[in-house]
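dumping this here before i forget
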Amino acid sequence: MKCCFGVDVGGTTVKMGLFGESGKILDKWEIVTRTENKGEAILGDISASILNKMQERQLDKSAVLGVGVGVPAPVTGDGIVTGSANLGWKYKEAKKELESFTGLKTRIENDANVAALGEMWKGGGLGQKNIVMVTLGTGIGGGVVIDGKIVPGAHGSAGEIGHICVNYEETDVCGCGNFGCLEQYASATGIVRLAKKKLAQAEIDTILKKEEVSAKSVFEAVKAGDAAATEVAEQFGRYLGYTLANLAAVVDPAVFVIGGGVSKAGEVLIPFIQKSYLERALFAVKDVKFTLAALGNDAGICGSAKMILGE
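structure:
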């Protein structure tokens, strides 16, 4: 039996999976991400866990096709992580180190790109070869898959949708150091920001005044028919929909897959994004579909495995 490993490195845990050659998940587990001392133990821990799993399952190295890894950072074509604040890395020859530790072929890519590949393979983009995944969490990430292959870019930074500038008049700084990024308006924190601005306006009657404002509470209020929350959702949809319309003119995807914590609000998100998208999209790309991510926490390990099994 031939198999491979899929690894998704996060700031708190490393999710890991063993996959059969057919793509079936044979095993899943996770280990703690030890970020102390500039994350020097992370790659060694991953390698040890893989080798332990091989021993446990009596797998010879000849049976393992390789190890795919997604990391929260830009990754160059030769597997060098140029920097990752979440992991404490500034310059890490990750591919070379993992191959040295394990003796296994290794491929490393940005985690959002890897998740997009996973969703294309087994999730919200199933059956398509050209997709864009947008992850709406504390920030906004993204991944682009064209003709079934990840588009990493020259610097490993393709798909950084959250840092497209959407407001040239913004004076508050984004976490990236720029101003007016999409992340400031359509991420979980961005939605809260929009909601608080709405609440600071003239006296309005809204459910949002009765509880702590969060992206979840905003969309729960939308479901309840709350007018103020609906206006916030429309703002969110406008920023994101217009951005995706611009992106579609460049990469022409068949599907936009919406993931991340905000996507847990469910289908209520889609009409707000799609309405604004259709207002600005080029005629040739107006039939792009919008779906929710389907793999949850497995997207990263699935995409990582798919890199080894063949894009």
